[in-house]
Amino acid sequence: MSSPIPRALLYVGGTVACLLLIPPAAIAYIRSQSSPGRPVHLIWDMDNQAKYKAQEENPLFADGRAARPIVAGTVAMGEANLDTHFTEGVTGPSAEWATTLPAGLVADETFMRRGQERFNIYCSPCHGFAGFGDGMVNRRAMTLMNNSSGSVDNTSWTQAKNLHEDQIRAQPIGQIYHSLSYGIRTMAGYSAQIPTEDRWAIASYVKALQRSQNAAPQDIPPDRRTQVGSEEAATVASAAPSDQANRDGGHDRQGAVNQ
Q1: CA distance linking residue 85 with residue 101, whole number of Å
Q2: Helix pair 173-182, 196-213: axis angle to 10 deg
Q3: Span 27-49, pLDDT tens digits
Q4: Which of 109, 138, 229, 254 is most buried as measured by Cβ atoms within 10 A of its Cβ?
Q5: What is the domain range of residue 116?
Q6: CATH number for position 181
């Protein structure tokens, strides 16, 4: 049979345990109270820096302000934006919409394919791949707006523009670039998401889309007009037998009905 723990040892152990609870209790109490004094930093790291904060006073300057005004004429490196044709889509002293691409940009096949790729990523969800304003986001939004019980969750949506409307087709390429960069109506600008050259590529592709749906015979190069005419005639000729078959089938069905 084991001997019992001496009573004196129990008293000493209990006293030591109570004493050990005092430091954490004191620390918790101090942390819960506000103090006008500065906190003690054993390791300063970056907690306290020799600097002035916004709106603080600085007796070094005559106006007493620590924050200094911008030096007149100062421009951040790379942000001069002196070529307004390239950055804003306007030209001339009267800031007219540009009708051509900025210097250094060429509307070759690579440039146009880049514009198509960027258009499909950023523009087609609302405007559709062909630019008729029938993108999947627009279709979904219009479905919510036209719900028989009213718009779902108070949805508000502005119909995406058909880029083939006469009003938009008449816009110069600079205006299309500007709308893409800074937004128009409820459409936000994409200057933060799309680099400047890519925005010009998209604007060029939009003009190509508009031409594709509103082209005239004189827009075809002379050396291709004969080829296009031959292809069109072949297409019509290949469709003629099926049309005739449909008509013959219609006559047969009509005869059967009459009988």
Answers
A1: 8
A2: 130
A3: 888 888 887 777 777 777 777 77
A4: 138
A5: 84-131+161-218
A6: 1.10.760.10
